[in-house]
Amino acid sequence: MKSWLKGARREGLTPILGGMGLTGGREAESAMGIGLGIVLIVIGAILLFALNLDIPWVSDDTLGIILILAGFLTLALALILNYQRGRTKHVQESRYDGPPPAI
Question: Is 4 helix (H, G, I), strand (E, B) or coil?
Fold first, then answer.
């Protein structure tokens, strides 16, 4: 591991390598779930309260309610998954084929 990478990990920073953090991009997945939930809620509220569209196959109020409910479900699931990831303990085990390194 490169020295700047070790220093960044020691200081609590997550360097970006190839588009993914050292943790495999899990922080981005959680933020995307929360962001998606908020976007669905906002679009649903706009359809429900602000716009009066004439969509032939569905009512705009019904579509707004469906999007708001889907947004709250997405937001709740993202927060629950984020909470569970925060409680996870990661253990790294290193095995060597030779004698232990001299310190």
Answer: helix
- What is the C-alpha separation between 96 and 10, in angstroms, rounded? 23
SS3 state of residue 18: coil
Cα radius of gyration (the chain): 22
Task: Give bridge partners of residue 17 from the DSSP assignment.
Answer: 20
Where along the chain do its domains lie?
Answer: 37-86
pTM of the complete model: 0.56
Identify the pLDDT of residue 26: 55
Identify the helix (H) or strand (E) that includes residue 62: helix 60-86
pLDDT tens, position by position, 40-57: 999 999 988 888 877 788
What pLDDT, in 10s, does the model give residues 68-84? 999 999 999 998 888 87
Q: How far is CA 13 from CA 4, 21, 55, in A?
A: 11, 10, 49
Q: What is the DSSP string of 32-45?
A: HHHHHHHHHHHHHH
